[in-house]
Amino acid sequence: MLAAAAAATVSTAQADPITPYVVGGEAADIADFPYTVALTTPDGFQFCGGSLAAADKVVTAAHCVEGTSPSEIEVVSGLTDLTAAGGETAEVTDVWVHPDYSDPAISADVAVLTLGSDLSAPPIAVAGPGDEDLYAAGTDTTVLGWGTTSEGGSASDTLLKASVPVTSAADCATAYGSDFIADSMVCAGVPGGGVDSCQGDSGGPLVAGGKLIGAVSWGEGCARPGKPGVYTKLITFSADIQARLG
After folding, report:
1. Does 232 share its domain with 146?
2. Would you name the residues annotated as active-site residues?
3. Where, if anywhere, are coiled coils annotated (predicted)?
4. Could you identify which of 71, 96, 103, 164 might form a hypothetical disulfide with 188, taking C-beta atoms 3.0 to 4.6 angstroms apart as the criterion?
């Protein structure tokens, strides 16, 4: 059931066919979303996404990097098409996974990567105190990633974006029962399905009001009716994240 949870390690992300992506989206230009980064293996396999929150810090999902050594991860910035030349690549020197992260419940699904060199792209601010309204039901959000474009389909070389409204906690609880934890998760999706994050999008940004409010975390399948995407509710972890950002 936990589609986005498949990438517990880099090797798992490569092998499991159900990690998250953007379904029903459209092409995005990295110039419009410069904080969006790809997490890759040293040989260039893209397995998750992330958001640049400081020149040398990336916020992503814990399930993307738990149990993974920094040497197994590189961060690629500044590319719309991951097969194109250019962009910037930074090595990862430290992986911090929230100490309350657990699997399979996927609570506290947040991690912060420290880079060995600064990236030039402007970072995005992470939601914190005073940003509670960004989580109100119906708030328009944008999710971004290079993941697959249909459930079980092929990944996209080109950055995709999709607009999905925040789902109420009550509706998300109806969709997922006790697996949904309102304090640490937020759902976003179209009731009829057809638009969602999915395989390969894990850890990528969910943005509202110019702030990073979520990271792609999990869901049942991709873009299914009545099954919105589930994202880490980053405002809950803002103090921990800011402490890592320095």
Report:
1. yes
2. 63, 109, 202
3. none
4. 164
Q: Which of 177, 22, 21 is nearest to 105 (CA)?
A: 177
Same domain, 224 and 138: yes
Residues 204 and 148 in one domain: yes
Do both 143 and 223 map to the same domain? yes
Measured CA to CA, the distance from residue 197 to residue 145 in angstroms comes to 8
pTM exceeds 0.85, yes or no:
yes
**pLDDT higher at 192 or 201:** 201
* Residue 241 vs residues 60, 80, 126, 152, 208: alpha-carbon distances, Å: 11, 27, 8, 32, 18
Q: pLDDT tens digits for 135-194?
A: 999 999 999 988 655 455 556 678 988 889 999 999 999 999 999 999 999 999 888 665
Dihedral angle sign, alpha carbons of residues 86, 90, 96, 97:
positive
Q: What is the mean pLDDT of the chain?
A: 85
β-pairing, 125-126 vs 211-218, is parallel
**DSSP per-residue string spanning 136-176:** STT-EEEEEESSBSSTT-PBPSB-EEEEEEEEPHHHHHHHH
How many domains is the chain partitioned into structurally?
Answer: 2
Structure tokens at 61: 């999902």
Is residue 80 domain-shared with residue 173, that is, in the same domain? no
Range of the domain at 115: 34-123+239-245
Q: Any idea what the CATH number is for the domain that residue 157 is in?
A: 2.40.10.10
Q: CA 77, CA 110: separation in Å to the nearest integer?
A: 20
